[in-house]
Each structure stands twice: as C-alpha cells, then as structure tokens.
Write a structure and sequence with these properties.
This protein has 213 residues and is of the alpha/beta class. The chain has a single domain (3-212), classed as 3-Layer(aba) Sandwich (Rossmann fold). The chain has helices at 15-26, 52-61, 67-70, 81-88, 94-102, 128-135, 149-162, 182-187, 202-212; strands at 3-8, 32-35, 38-39, 43-45, 48-50, 73-74, 109-117, 121-123, 126-127, 139-144, 167-173, 194-197. The longest helix has 14 residues, at 149-162.
Length: 213
C-alpha cells in the first residue's frame, strides 16, 4: 500500500487544513485518492450524513470517487469514533476501517486521515496508531504551533516510536502569526524532520513535504 497516514498531537490541530494543501500539491504529479474512513460530529440533512472534513479532502483530491467510498462510516454524535459507534449500537471494528482504507485504492497514492490524535480511540478497542500500523503507512503528525507544542510533539513522536511507526515528519501548524521558536527548539530534541506550515510559508512547506513522502 502506497500512501501516508495523517494524525495529530490532539484533535483540532488543523489536520484537514494541512492535508488539503498537501493533496492539492501532490495531485499535480501523482494519482491520489483520499480516505477519511470515519468521521463524527456529522450534520444530518434529509437523512444523509454530511462529513465535513471528508468532503474537503475529497474536493481537494478531485478523484471523482463518491463520499460513500471516501468516508463510509459517519456518525452524528460529537465524540470519538469508538464512542459514537457504540452509541449507535453498531460497534466499529478496526478491520472495518482497514477494509475501508484499502477498497479500490489499487496502486494509487492513498492519503488517509485519522480522527483526533495518535492515541485517540478510532474503533472498538483500537487507536489511530493501531490503524496506521495495520495499514503499514508512514505518518505525518500535525501539531498546533503554540505554547506547549514542543512537549506535545515529543509525546506524539514517542508514542509513534513505541508502536514502531515510521514518521515522515512533524508539522507545526501556525494558526495565528507568532514569534515562537518551536521548530528550532523541537529539532534540538528529535531527528524526526520538523516542518512549519503557514499560509506565508506554504510554497517551501509543500516542496519539503513532497521530498519526504
């Protein structure tokens, strides 16, 4: 399986925002498909689930695949996929997500986005790290560029290493312009590639990312 798995140090760190930019760049040179196998906090319109992140990823990819293939498991409850699926009465199993990520991918480069952080529950008794390991994909860890980012990044790197996951890079996602030196500080503590993403640095960021994945 050829691709990359996107995870984060936590939820709400901008995984989808960064992913969309990478996908738009990569699809110029590669055949890309996206998989957001499960999404919670979906709006329900006329009985249809609206997975907001999956729609953004699929639109960026423009592969022509239907949302039922990109994101087959949708839940209205704002909770972890594990909790949301148990609440629905239909427990979501890791094997379900593995199948969803592999279906009709073929030899194309698959961009898989998890749900929440690397240790967030994504299925019944399974974490995001378990799905990444089962797929055998290198991971990109997104961290919000803020006070505490270095600690959050190092904890996520250690978590990935403990699961023997290959880390392509860590991305410090700058939500708001700041004068922090998190990238410089983080590089002093890890050999993992550390990239910085912001609107102003997007061109350099995308060039560096392409070399790593």
């Amino acid at each position: 399986m050829n691709g990359v798995f996107i995870t984060g140090s936590n939820t709400e760190v901008g995984k989808t925002t960064v992913s969309v930019e990478i996908i738009k760049h990569l699809k110029q040179k590669r055949q890309i498909v996206v998989r957001k196998p499960v999404e919670t906090d979906c709006e329900v319109v006329d009985g249809t689930y609206i997975p907001k992140d999956a729609i953004m990823l699929n639109d960026a990819c423009a592969s022509g695949e239907g949302l039922d293939l990109v994101c087959p498991f949708c839940y209205e409850l704002e909770a972890s996929p594990e909790e949301a699926s148990l609440d629905s009465g239909r427990p979501l199993e890791l094997v379900d997500l593995i199948k969803a990520c592999k279906t009709q991918v073929g030899k194309r480069f698959v961009f898989v986005e998890g749900a929440g952080g690397i240790y967030s529950p994504i299925a019944n008794n399974a974490l995001n790290s378990d799905l990444a390991a089962a797929l055998g994909l290198p991971i990109i860890i997104i961290v919000k560029d803020e006070l505490g980012a270095v600690g959050q990044a190092l904890l996520s790197i250690n978590a990935a290493n403990s699961q023997k996951l290959k880390i392509a890079c860590v991305v410090l996602n700058e939500f708001e312009p700041n004068h922090l030196s998190n990238a410089q500080a983080l590089r002093a503590y890890t050999k993992t590639p550390v990239l910085e993403y912001s609107k102003a640095k997007s061109k350099l960021f995308l060039s560096e990312t392409e070399k790593l994945i």
